[in-house]
Amino acid sequence: MFDDLKFIGDNIRSFRRSRNWTLAQLASKIGIQEGPLGRIERGVNLPSAKVIYNLAQTLDIPTDALFAPDLSLARAKAAETDAVHVNVEPDMTVPQKTLLSACKSLMSAFHTLEDILGVQKHALLPLSIPFKPDYAGMEQLAAQVRSAMGTGDAVIFDYLELFENFGLRVLLFRFMKSADNFNGVSFFEPVHQNAFFFINSRKSPEKQLFCLATELGKILIFNQMKIRKDPLFPEPDASSGPRPINAKRAAKHFAAAFLMPDTAVKTTVGQLGITPDTWTWDLVLRIKQRFGISAEAFVYRLKELNLITKELSSTYIQKIKTHYNQTDFGEAGASRRILNANGRFFDLLLTAGRIKSAQQEIQKIKETVEKLKI
């Protein structure tokens, strides 16, 4: 037995299991018998060059992923081709390598848990939906996503649970201070038509929630760009107005419409008899809590829907910015929203922890969790 190279067999077994293939199925796909493949997975024999090539082609992974001595590293190498960092604008800042590395480690951990338990990897929510690339198109896109989720215009208490119920992977952890300018990072996984969302838990719950919705918007925009092979949003010209739409603004407008559907906001405001010129600061703080978003996002949404005068919105936005400067971006009116973070991840970890044959992999995941202080 090649004890020093046993990790090669472990990697092959892990990648096979992640695709829910039996030993016989993979053996048939790569053109060898089940017995020889079983000996390779157990570390009794080493694969030939032809078998290595066939494995990489069949599993759709880079060859060096099979030779990574650490399973998490093997998955990270495979994820480099499977998961795509979502970037909807060419000039957007790319997260530093340390943050991307942390995200890839967590994607690897998540994949390992899904593999051990044999759970569904595909999202139950369509992540490729055609839309018109303007502000009205973003409103309609948000409505389509909410319809697919079965929520209509209802105000949702726990968006994290909602995302996770549709198979999306959401993880909150404290980004390193050097990456604190990032509210979140997302990855699209074409092979499973699913996504990973990594949210900076250093931010307030309201900002975390808005970031999550924005990243979903980016993924929907990103996928349409890839399908159409088109940037979608043209370069602004003199006729574009004061705020021409671009991919970044489109994603944020999607988030606002998703978290604060126009019908829900208008109904709430109408039931209270608030007119555009009768808003008070206390009313803004009270009602924004119902939607779980920041006072800033709420005032901008009121402005978009013509539910507040220009003068009052300007006054409140300035008040909010002053508050941010004085409190290091603390939430106006304090944060009352409590997010049930990382629920699915730790549920999977707890369930997989009872499987004796997976203890070595579970221990490595726990080390990752401790290192990143999730």
TrEMBL record:
Protein name as annotated: ImmA/IrrE family metallo-endopeptidase
Family: Belongs to the short-chain fatty acyl-CoA assimilation regulator (ScfR) family.
CDD domains named in the record: HTH_XRE
InterPro entries: Cro/C1-type_HTH, IrrE_HExxH, Lambda_DNA-bd_dom_sf, Rad_response_metalloprotease
Organism: Desulfobacter latus
A Pfam family reported for this protein in Swiss-Prot or TrEMBL: HTH_3
GO molecular function, one term: DNA binding
Segments forming domain HTH cro/C1-type: 12-66
